[in-house]
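Title: Prediction job returns without error message
Component: structure pipeline
Severity: low
Priority: P3
Assignee: unassigned

Description:
Job completed but the reporter wants confirmation the result is attached to the right record. Sequence as submitted:
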Amino acid sequence: MKANVKNLLMLTAAVTMTACVNHDVEEIVENNTKAMYSSSFMKKYPNVSLNQSWDYSSKQKTFGLGDVTRSNVPTRGSEAGFTEGGWYEVDNNTLTWMHDQLVEGVDNRSLGKPFYMSVPGNEFTIVPIFQGLASAVWELHMVVDGNDYKVWTKSQDIQIKDNDNSDWHVLHCGYHTWDGGNTWIFSEWESQYNTIGGDKHTGDDSHEPSVVTDVRAKKYICADLPVGAEMYFYLKVTTGDTDRCEVGAEQSSIKGMMLALQGVPRPANIPADNEAMIIACEDADLSLSDWDMNDVVFLVYGKKVPKPVEITEGDEVERRTTVRYMIEDLGATDDFDFNDIVIDVADIDIVSPIYTNDVLTGWNNKGHRQEAIIRHLGGTLPFRLTIGNTQLEEHAGVLGADPDEKYDITGWDINRHNISVQVKQNNNSGVYNNVTFPKAGEAPMIIAVDPTQMWMSERQSVPESWFYIPQD
């Protein structure tokens, strides 16, 4: 009996030692793989400092009706039913009516409430008709049925006539800054036009009065969109005055940054059976905003225009903060496309508007949840994701898939980036490499970006400009 016990103890010790050896070997393999990856990363990006947070997300809060697919934001043109049309010469009667409604420098928010729209059963046209005095630069986006489409960029495809030049010509105004000496420096980035001032600045920063006589712009025709689908517009701020708006902000109609003005006199140069509507936009929502809602104004027309649906007290919308994580799975130690796993993680507040004297003054919190959406897979190794308190089931690796798989999660911390992934080792299907969000000083296998950041093609390394590079 004693001999049997002794033999059993010896066998148990041998098994335990073997397990420890195997675990040690697996850990050595993982550490060696990570060391090779780190060495390759530093060779690939010699100018990039490892002493950075690897978090490049702006954490902007966006208002919407649900998840928006940003995996590939099409530009205007023939994509997704958008076609660029010819020139539209703005009817000055339309502008006169618009100026009567939107008084310059006056808070005009009481003219409407936050809104979204429904897609009509016919094509409709969007055209910029007025661009006011605004320091920000932005893009116009349209979200239709959860898909995000870029329509237009500030000052693009706009021409004017003025008292100095009766031929159509591009805008030639800009913002002048003092160089500290005796010269005003001309900067084209704030190109603007308006019909109540001019398209020029003078040295004392005043405008030549009433020099613009005519305006025309390219129109954009929207067709073959899903009838009845929910849609809304937003301005994506790409450059701006930090006292007025944040770069990266999405100033949407749902957020209360736009007005849907109906009752506009039908312009003479649209078909007689068409309706017309004006979408008036404010780009600034911080302390120095004037809220005059005329930083850019669009005319929308068609047999039926998209029908505005006001968001009233008690109605619920979503306020999201989303981070996109781009992950390397260590399938190769010299591959930095960061597209093996791309996942959007969102912290979502359910909110409803608060109005004071018909002006939006805040939002009531009605609920909260978190979700994760796998946007892209570019690796062949099976993996298990853990986000916050939630571990997802093992997922097969897939090369070049955009699954848009959605999961409810809990416990995700947007600042701690408590996300990790276990990836099966190349040479041992029963063993996992552990990839976590990197600390400063470590080569990154996960980076955090905005959800608008598109991933790279397979085996195309991300540019070094994505990372922090110390300046000498």
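Comment from assignee: result matches the submitted record. Residues 373 and 406 are 4 Å apart (CA to CA).
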